[in-house]
Structures are given as C-alpha cells and as structure tokens.
C-alpha cells in the first residue's frame, strides 16, 4: 500500500486551510491590535480580512482546478463541489461585508472567527462522500451557528432562539447519527457510493427502511421542513442579522447539497428505473413533507407582522419546493435543485441586507417600519422589490427560473412524472399565495405614506454596494440563467449522474 501524499492532500485542502488561517488571523488582529479602537473601526478591519480570505480561497480554486478523491471518500474534489464551495464562500463574503455596521457585540474577532469556522464546515460538507465526515462537518457547522445565534447578549430573543436551535439541532444530530450507524451496520462501510451497492445487494430490509427514515428526519431539521421546522422562526427572529443571513443562505446551500448527495449516491439503485426511496414507498412520505412545508410555510407567513418571521416561514415553504427536486432525482433534477438553492440563497441574503438597514435606522423589523421606505431610501427599496418578487417566482428574475427548471425536471422525469403533477400544481398555487405576503411588504414600502417627521435614511456606502450587487446578480441570473445552469450541467455530466 502506497504511503499517502500529504503534500498533495494539503494542496487539495488549500481553500479550507486559507479559511482556517483567516479565522486565526482575525482573532489575532482583533485581540492583539484593535482592542482599544472604536467598534466600528474593528468591525470594518476584521470584516475586510474575512472577505479577503474568502476571496483568496475562491481565487485558489479558480486557478488550481484540482480533481481527485482520497480513500473512503473522506475528501473528494470535482468540478461540482468546487462550484458549490465557491458559492458558499461568496455568501460568507457578503455576510461579512453586511456585518460592518453591526453593533450587537464587542467580541468582534470571535464573531468573525465563528463565521469562518462555520464556512469551513460547509466546505467540508460539500467535499465528502463519507458518512463520518458528513456528521463531523455538520456538527462543526451547527456548533458555530448555535453560538452565532446567541451572540447578542443583550437580547433575550437571541438567547431563546439559540436555545431552541440547539435543542432541535441536537435532536436532529441524534437521528442522523443513529441512521448512519444503522447504515454502517447493514453495509459495513461509511463510503456512500459503496453503501449503495451493498444496500442494492441486500434488497428490502426493515433496518434499511428505518435508517432511511432517520436520515430524512435528521436532514429535515437542517432544511427546516415540516414537521421539523419549529426552531426556524425563533432563530431567524432572535439571531443577530448577519447570523440569520448565514443560516438562511450558506447553511442552506451546504445542507441541500450533502442531503441530495447522500440520497442520490447512497440510496440509488444503478441501472433501475427507481431507487430505494421510490421502491420502498418513501416517495409518498417525502411528497407529504414537501406539500406540508409549502402549505404551512406560506399560510403561516401571511399572519406575520415581523418581516424576519415572514422570511423564516418563507424559508420553510422553500424547503418544500426544494424537496420536489429530491423526489424527481436524476442529473437534470439535481442541476435544477442546485440552481434553485443558489439563487434562493443570494436573494435571501440580499433581503436580509435591506432588513439590516431598516433595523439599524428605524429600530424594528415590523411591517409598519417599512412605511414610506421607497421615499426614504429609493435605491434600497428597488432592490427589496427585486428580492421579494424573485422569492415569489416572478419573471424575469432568478427565482422564477429556479422554480421553472425544478418543476420541469419533476414533470420530465419519465416514467414517474405523473405522481409529481399534484406537487407541481400545489407548488404553483402556493407561489401565488406567497406573492400576497411579499406584496404586503412592498405595499408598505411603496404605497403607505411615511410619518410626517420621517427623514431620508442614512444608508452606509458598503451596505448600498453589497445590496445593489446582489440585486444585480438576481436580475442577471434571471435574464441569463444559462450562465450558472450550464456550469452546473457540465459539472454534473462529468460525474455521470
């Protein structure tokens, strides 16, 4: 047996190493050199270092297009997960830039270090096909996010949201670990593709069914799908705004990608028209979870007066849309799923960017706080309209094409397209419902008059730039979806999925 090439492994791990070194750097710079400086100055310097580290990691991946796999699938590099990692790093970069005006903590270095460590966990999630590594990476992400949600020590809502997130997250970890242990007991391996071959050889097995249920429950918590969604509204509402943005964007992208990978590679029966999910009758169960998420998420969002909670219930509804892509399976559905979650993440982080300005300048996130927003901050109001209409699926924005490609992949999945017809119809109907509550926010911004004493908002230059860039990206991906979709198609085709 040849000795492992550690230099090659270190070169492959370079993006993750860069992010870890950046985390150590921001800690050192803040603790050793910036403690006596004003908080705004510390935030700007450390956020800039964080963004620079993420940009450097992205640049490394673009310049060094390494491809390879290490024994047991512990670490895998291919064009697809490189693309996903670049998206995660880009979302972290935007989160860091939106954090520069935050005033909820004086522990600046620790806060950005946790953001970077969570990002490292997400990157490892995208780069592994081993159950042990999946679990370890998920725990790294989760532990960092629990602390990030609780970082506002002056807010009782922050502590409450973090506690609920921690309790539900711990429960999901238990389900996931139990499911993984059953899979290992049945197959004798933690390598996901090898596990699929062993499960196929075993055929129908009650323990395999239990393991599949455990895995679906564990990842269902991560996606905030019904009935595993109870943590999401309180965590979104109580968390510091950049933390909520990271949970809603980068964490969602990583969780969706690794869940889809486990289902596609681990429970797939090569050469057959259906996989273990469909063969075991779990298509119906996953369909019910998807439908419940779409219905409950959208109907509950109608009743919300807090825009943060509205976005949280919207995220639950979008988890239902995403599950349609899981059910459809196949390379086309997988590509559409990744396109959808990427555009959703960009849109959501942009909406949180606008919300951060409103909270900082007006002092709340209630619908009434957006009254007259278009006259107080016209450019940001226009960006908010782009984000919300994209989330509702209005053409020609990116959200429309995300849903279109996802629903089309489900209906084109012969010979099993008919069972998905009712889900697609329900998804379209619930998208119409979502348009109603998004328009409620826009009504406040563009129709309702502001208070007579209200003055134009003072929007930080960097927040303006980031939000406008995100809005431009949403419009660009709507007008030219092929730019991202073709990249994902080529990456998926190379893997033979």
Q: What this model shows, in words?
A:
With 497 residues, the protein is mostly helical. It has a domain of 207 residues. The chain has 22 helices and two strands. Strands 1-2 form a two-stranded antiparallel ribbon. The longest helix has 33 residues. The protein is globular, with a radius of gyration of 22 Å. The chain starts with 5 loop residues before the first helix and ends with a helix. The relative contact order is 0.09.
Order of helices and strands: HHHEEHHHHHHHHHHHHHHHHHHH
Poorly predicted parts: 269-281
Q: Largest sheet, if any?
A: 2 strands, antiparallel
Query: Which structural class best describes the helix and strand composition?
Result: mainly alpha
Q: Strand arrangement, largest sheet?
A: 1-2
Give the number of helices.
Answer: 22
Strands, total number: 2
- Beta fraction: under 5%
Mean pLDDT: 87
Q: Roughly how many Å apart are the termini?
A: 30 Å
Helix content: over 70%
Radius of gyration: 22 Å
| Gross morphology | globular
């Amino acid at each position: 047996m040849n000795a492992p090439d550690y230099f090659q492994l270190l070169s492959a791990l370079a993006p993750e190493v860069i992010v870890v070194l950046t985390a150590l750097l921001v800690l050192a710079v803040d603790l050793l050199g910036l403690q006596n400086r004003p908080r705004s100055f510390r935030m700007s310097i450390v956020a800039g270092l964080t963004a620079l580290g993420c940009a450097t990691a992205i640049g490394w991946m673009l310049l060094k297009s390494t491809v390879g796999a290490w024994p047991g699938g512990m670490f895998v590099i291919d064009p697809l997960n490189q693309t996903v990692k670049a998206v995660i790093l880009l979302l972290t970069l935007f989160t860091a830039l939106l954090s520069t005006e935050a005033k909820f903590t004086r522990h600046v270095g620790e806060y950005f270090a946790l953001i970077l460590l969570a990002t490292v966990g997400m990157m490892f999630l995208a780069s592994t096909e081993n159950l042990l590594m999946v679990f370890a990476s998920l725990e790294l992400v989760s532990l960092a996010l629990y602390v990030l949600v609780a970082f506002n020590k002056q807010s009782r809502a922050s502590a409450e949201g973090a506690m609920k997130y921690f309790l539900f997250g711990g429960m999901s970890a238990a389900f996931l670990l139990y499911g993984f242990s059953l899979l290992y007991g049945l197959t004798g391996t933690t390598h996901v593709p090898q596990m699929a071959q062993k499960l196929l050889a075993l055929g129908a097995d009650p323990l395999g069914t239990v393991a599949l249920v455990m895995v679906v429950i564990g990842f269902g918590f991560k996606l905030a799908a019904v009935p595993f969604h109870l943590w999401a509204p309180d965590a979104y509402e109580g968390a510091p705004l950049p933390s909520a943005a990271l949970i809603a964007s980068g964490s969602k992208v990583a969780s969706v990608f690794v869940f889809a990978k486990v289902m596609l590679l681990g429970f797939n029966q090569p050469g057959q028209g259906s996989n273990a999910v469909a063969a075991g009758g779990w298509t119906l169960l996953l369909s019910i979870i998807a439908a419940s998420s779409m219905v409950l998420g959208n109907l509950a969002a109608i009743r919300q007066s807090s825009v943060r909670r509205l976005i949280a219930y919207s995220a639950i509804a979008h988890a239902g849309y995403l599950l349609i892509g899981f059910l459809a399976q196949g390379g086309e559905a997988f590509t559409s799923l990744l396109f959808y979650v990427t555009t959703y993440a960009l849109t959501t982080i942009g909406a949180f960017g606008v919300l951060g300005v409103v909270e900082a300048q007006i002092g709340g996130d209630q619908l009434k706080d957006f009254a007259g927003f278009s006259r107080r901050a016209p450019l940001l109001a226009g960006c908010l309209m782009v984000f919300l209409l994209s989330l509702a699926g209005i053409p020609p924005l990116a959200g429309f094409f995300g849903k279109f490609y996802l629903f089309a992949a489900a209906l084109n999945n012969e010979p099993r397209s008919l069972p998905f017809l009712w889900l697609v119809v329900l998804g379209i109907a619930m998208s119409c419902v979502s348009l109603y509550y998004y328009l409620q926010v826009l009504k406040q911004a563009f129709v309702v008059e502001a208070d007579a004493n209200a003055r134009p908002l003072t929007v930080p230059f960097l927040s303006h730039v980031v939000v406008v860039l995100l809005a431009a990206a949403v419009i660009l991906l709507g007008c030219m979806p092929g730019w991202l979709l073709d990249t994902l198609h080529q990456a998926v085709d190379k893997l033979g999925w």
